[in-house]
Amino acid sequence: MTVVDLEKNVPQDAPRQVLADGTANDSVAALPDVPRRIGGLTRSGVLSLFGAAASGLCTAVLLFGELAPFSGGLGFFVTAYLSFLGIYAVLTGLEEDGQAVRDRVMTVVLWTAGGLMFLALAMVVGFTAWRGREALPHGNFFTQDMQAAGPLDPLTHGGIAHAMLGTLIMITIALAITVPLGLACAVYLNQIRGRFSRFVRTIVEAMTALPSIVAGLMVYAVWILGLGMQKSGLAAGFAISVMMLPIVIRAADVVLRLVPGNLTEASEALGAPRWRTVWHVVLPTARSGLATAVILGTARGIGETSPVLLTAGFTAALNADPTSGPMVSLPLAVFNFVKSPEPTMIARGFGSAAVLMALVLVLFAIARVIGGRGPGHQNKRQARRAARASRRDTTRFAELHTPGLELFEPGASETDDHSERPERGAGNGAPSPHPPAPDNGGQAPKADAPAPDDEIRTGGAGGNEDLATGDSH
Questions:
Q1: Over the chain, what is the mean pLDDT?
Q2: Residue 467 — φ and ψ, nearest 5°?
Q3: Could you tell me the pTM of the whole model?
Q4: Which of 242, 264, 367, 446 is deepest in the core (most CB within 10 A)?
Q5: Max intra-chain CA distance, the chain
């Protein structure tokens, strides 16, 4: 039984805090802190999870089969899931508090949402690859164009080499325009914050919702109708860059906002100008996020069809010149293939879609390699590079603090220092008004035998001159 002190309202058997002088503090009891476990699997948690899942399934079966006139597969799964969440919350509440119950339920909801998204992605990729399995094994599908192949020709004739090359050329032109402009605009919005930053931010947000057909029409009206240029891959690159630019700017702006402000403040406190702070501190810190921003813009631009159709036209032949002649991209080739009623053309269309997804995956991997890891996470090569830089800095600092660079060398006598230093008033050829100090018989005092204090103060046996400064007293 625990005895409680009524005056202090503290259990007598509770642990006491011991002060520095060795006395015990009875007024405050040091209760042990037991943190709540927020991760990992426990036996009771697993049993509660599976029990709630089984109970939710049984509840949905009873409602749809016996108790209520419900029907439909979607309603069945929704009812079973909601019942599962409710029963799981009740079972968790038998052992945990309300905060733990909310944490467990939200964890299950987030895992469910992530699982559904991954399932949808796997279904899209798997269905596309399955439908294009007939065209992908053929080598000519990647090395030939459709100039000499028709809709009735087998899959051993023709391919999508022209579309693959056209996509790479267009996206390269778009990236060459978008990456410098997008990153520069994001740095302006985040670091400079000039007079027109609010206006620029509004325009960027408005361009994010710009339909792709409008971008194609703008480039078509300006480049082709206004300037009289022909349809080409260059015009398509311009149209794609218009679609990519707002995505890159907004994503890069969000990433730059996550850079800690104390890093930029420390750089500017050391005297670095703003451009050097941005180039050496802000951009390297946000490099991984900036690579993700570029990938988001690339994924948006590489799948555009209508701007390419308006500005680049369509061709079945291979064209490697982006400045003249029509050019086709993979999305446009997919659209042209799948609208045909022939099974071979449909297989080519799904094969082209699978190649497009693989191309996006390759570009994403390249961007991940260029972007590197996030701040504070280094790979082995970066760690070795940082270690070499640290060794170079250590050597440089050691050279700056060598004894030869000190103001007063150790072991040097005051008289030698006085003899090398010109007398005050003796500059410009003027004679010194002070008589020279006695040379003590022509012998210099030893370095390890310090001169008496009265000689240092008076300049010898009977002088009144300070050897350190040359002033007369």
A1: 78
A2: -70, -25
A3: 0.66
A4: 242
A5: 125
